[in-house]
User: Which sequence fits this backbone?
């Protein structure tokens, strides 16, 4: 049972729990400052991989700046005592339109990595999206997450047997929905990693789904060092710059549940995804980790939501740090919002408890934002709730 099912009425009641408990939280509740607090706990390599961005970080900064340009216009006396943030996205119920973004190699942030994250998400009923590049396998994560909702994110590598096997395993392990990340035909130019000659996957990190996979293992070259063999074999199938729209046709042969494309920033690509029959998209620029100089994700959200929002599910991530950010993305047309680095900073700071803290604070702030702006739920948020400055 999630906490909400167990009786929490409104997420903002978390505030009273803190005040009445009288114990100052270990982790800041100023969610935009999580990065600075987490930075102090991360090794230089982990900091470089997690916090830093592609290029000189222009797109990551643009992501944040885009949120600041929108301002909510609070409305008064609307009776917001019966707020409801609960919703359903592609058959998955959630207590609020918030999900855990797929993030690879979470053991860089904390030794328990994805297991801590999925336990925290399960406790609050927030759907967890498992990265193909995770440090724990589908099966380990499924066991840790129990009955809680979970989706799976696939990177299309060049070996179709591995796709088929991943999708089979994901289904068997209870992952309901597939997210295919399309903004990573190659890894972006990330100076922080390059300067340290640090690539987690080539060090054997983040390959748990692969090294536990029969199709991947079947083609491993002979080697006295299994770790080196796995990393080298993986590097031979990822990246996959030749991937095209036609190349995605295999998905329907191996997956009968909903499929979304993650990493869409162009209206024409969104239309093409809808025309091709995909169930949804995640408007995202990978948090500014892929193409530096790319447009801020929030800046393209309204036009994309306008163009395809009635035909498919539009989700959003990139630059979301606070409950207010979530409210703004919802107002601009997202059905739900994925948290990326914000939950990861909580993980770095205090494992499962840290992720729970970030989720509780984000939910509480979203709930308060809805109330203070005069909305009884996220469904009432719309572009008319804001002005652009
Ligand atoms: C990511 N992201 C990501 N996306 C994906 O589809 N598969 C993955 O394995 C990863 N791995 C990953 C690792 C790390 C360390 C980060 C920070 C991000 C991108 C992620 O899903 C999401 O799009 C961004 O994190 C959103 O931007 P913010 O919220 O971090 O600014």
Assistant:
């Amino acid at each position: 049972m999630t906490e909400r099912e167990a009786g929490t009425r409104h997420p903002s009641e978390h505030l009273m729990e803190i005040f009445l408990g009288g114990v100052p939280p270990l982790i800041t509740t100023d969610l935009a400052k999580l990065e600075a607090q987490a930075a102090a706990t991360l090794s230089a390599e982990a900091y470089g991989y997690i916090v830093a961005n592609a290029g000189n970080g222009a797109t990551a900064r643009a992501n944040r700046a885009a949120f600041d340009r929108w301002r909510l216009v609070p409305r008064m006396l609307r009776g917001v005592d019966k707020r409801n943030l609960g919703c359903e996205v592609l058959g998955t119920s959630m207590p609020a339109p918030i999900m855990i973004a797929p993030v690879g190699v979470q053991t860089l942030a904390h030794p328990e990595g994805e297991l801590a994250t999925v336990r925290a998400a399960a406790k609050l009923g927030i759907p967890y999206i498992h990265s193909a590049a995770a440090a724990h396998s589908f099966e380990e994560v499924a066991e840790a997450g129990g009955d809680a909702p979970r989706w799976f994110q696939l990177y299309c590598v060049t070996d179709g047997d591995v796709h088929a096997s991943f999708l089979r395993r994901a289904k068997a392990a209870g992952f309901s929905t597939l997210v295919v990340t399309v903004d990573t035909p190659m890894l972006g130019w990330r100076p922080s990693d390059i300067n340290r000659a640090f690539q987690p996957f080539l060090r054997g990190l983040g390959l748990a789904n692969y090294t536990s996979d029969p199709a991947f293992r079947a083609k491993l070259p002979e080697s006295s060092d299994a770790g080196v063999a796995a990393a080298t074999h993986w590097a031979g199938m990822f990246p996959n710059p030749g991937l095209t729209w036609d190349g995605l046709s295999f998905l329907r042969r191996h997956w009968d549940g909903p499929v979304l494309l993650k990493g869409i920033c162009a209206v024409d690509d969104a239309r093409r995804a809808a025309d091709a029959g995909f169930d949804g998209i995640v408007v995202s620029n990978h948090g500014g980790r892929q193409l530096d100089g790319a447009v801020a994700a929030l800046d393209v959200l309204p036009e994309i939501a306008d163009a395809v929002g009635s035909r498919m599910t539009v989700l959003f991530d990139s630059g979301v740090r606070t409950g207010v950010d979530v409210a703004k993305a919802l107002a601009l047309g997202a059905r739900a919002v994925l948290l990326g680095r914000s939950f990861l900073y909580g993980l770095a700071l205090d494992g499962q408890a840290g992720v729970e803290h970030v989720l509780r604070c984000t939910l509480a702030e979203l709930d308060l934002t809805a109330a203070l702006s005069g909305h009884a739920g996220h469904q009432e948020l719309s572009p008319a709730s804001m002005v652009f400055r």
User: Anything to note?
Assistant: The first strand starts at residue 70 and ends at 72. The longest helix spans residues 341-372. The CA atoms of residues 36 and 345 lie 9 Å apart.
